[in-house]
Amino acid sequence: MLKLAARRWRLQAKDVCPMLKFLAIRHFAVIDRLQVEFQPGLTLLTGETGSGKSIIVDALGLLLGDRASQEKIRTGEETAAVEGQFAISLDNPVRQILHQGGFEAGEELILKREISGSGRNRIFVQGSLGTLNLLRELAPYLVHIHGQNENQTLTRPESHLDLLDEFGGNGEMRSRVVERCQLFRALERRLQMLQQGEQERLRRADLLKFQANEIEKVGPKPREDEELQAERRLLQNAEKLFSCAAEAYGLLYGDEGSHGMLAAYTHFLRRVEELSQMDPRFQGYLSNLDDVRYALEDLATTLRDYQQSVDFSPERLEQVERRLAEIERLKKKYGATLDAVLGHLERAKAELVELEGEGWDEGALRKQLEESRREYIQAAEALSVRRRQMAQRLEASMREELSELALEKAVFQVQFRSLSEPAPRGTDEVEFLVTTNPGEDLRPLVKIASGGEMSRISLALKSIIAADHSDAALIFDEVDAGIGGRVAETVGRKLKRLAARRQVLCVTHLPQIACFADHHYAVSKKVRKGRTITCVDALLPNARVEEIARMLGGSRITETTHKHARELLRLSKSP
């Protein structure tokens, strides 16, 4: 689907940031088939409530590694698919990730993800099969999606430390703290087991050996149960598969004493060729008709070979059933999924290494534990110092951002609390406090009543973090919640400034924001053949006036509304 788009698009020197160039969606929610080309700058998606604007964002999220749900497959269809084409800058980490994974790393990246009702989901990277982990590894360097749930995330204090670390670029220091904490906890567990007594340790080791041996005796492989279930379906339906293929082949070539479709088609083609020799109007059809014949012949060959490959073996079906039963017994004991069973095996083997390894001298263990605690505290304190430095920078940046978003009097503060015991994220707990009115006390974000204020705080935070640590494209899904008027215009100008440095896509209901678009798309629902579908149309200047007038006036659009829409578009071009 994207090959033609790839030929139309070529990376230009000005494309210094990752950019979504093309998105194709098939059978996803209310979308039947949809293809959209995107440009640099600020792209706005508008339309009536429920038209499907956020579904497009959801589809892009699926492409970038969000959880797949069969409920997203369009009613009556077996599969849904999302494909995307991205322009990649020369220094983007995506190139290294692709290279390490054995994929081509050129100027463009093509991703595709399919989900099916049978649970057989597939991922393609540059046309070859890929993994969900690779998709999620690539995603942060391609697109940052800030959805409608961002405000809810910000109201959870446990997310604030992650945001501060993301702003501060603290990933390496934080990883060091995690490693030190894991080592400390492992030594602590070993000491506890030693203190519980040798008998308890041996009982635990025997139990783990039994469990590991039981799983290893069956020897399940990742996704083996899914592959076996698919094979079982084929074996159970072998007779029907064979008869369908045989009947289709017979219809093409004909049974004994009768002519098939190919013979009739060949006769039909000769008549059209004769017509074209006498009347040129038929010549244009000949190449297409030849293609149809070749396709039918190719299908016939495939059907013939398929008949020979259909396996009627009851013995193989019995083997598959036995193997599935063995795997199901393991899943009942060690986890609901095969991944959980294999995870239990790895954990059991790791704990056995600890239980049977050296280092069970209590005095030596205590010394190791103290040394491990000192190393943890040293790493955690260094991270804490860095966090407090970056917190001051974040507070200063937020003052500037909030001032630009018509919250000139707002005060943003990062509050720290210290933990007494080692934790994987360090010795800090962090919460963002805000006051938007002079004289009021600083309060947690969860206690801010205004949805409009929360939307602007979210936009400010995400803008700062994205600007400092990534050149990925930004997507905002209804960042305008709870705002309007002058504040909406301010948000629109902010998005426009962001789009000068990177590609920005935004779903909005507000004309004061929509008027700032470099590229404006209208999303609508239509009914075709009794089914609802979502359509996306790029708007030319006159159509933009109509769409903004609709956003201003609803169902009653007057000349005054049109005049107001034209005025908004004119003012959006002023500094």
Short characterization:
With 575 residues, the chain is an alpha/beta fold. It has 20 helices and 15 strands. The strands form three sheets. Strands 2-1-4-5-6-7 form a six-stranded antiparallel beta sheet, with helices on one face.
Based on the model shown, name its key terms.
575 residues, alpha/beta, Rossmann fold, 6-stranded mixed sheet, 20 helices, 55% helix
Report on the structure:
The chain is of the alpha/beta class and 575 residues long. The protein has helices at residues 3-8, 53-63, 93-100, 132-138, 150-154, 158-168, 171-196, 198-218, 224-236, 238-253, 261-278, 286-309, 314-334, 338-356, 362-404, 451-469, 485-499, 511-514, 541-553, 559-572, and strands at residues 19-28, 31-37, 42-46, 79-87, 108-116, 122-125, 128-129, 143-146, 411-418, 428-435, 443-444, 473-477, 504-507, 519-528, 531-538. The strands form 3 sheets. Strands 2-1-4-5-6-7 form a 6-stranded antiparallel β-sheet, with helices on one face. It has a 6-stranded mixed β-sheet with strand order 8-12-13-3-14-15. α6 packs across α15 and α11 (261-278) runs antiparallel to α12. 29% of the residues are buried.
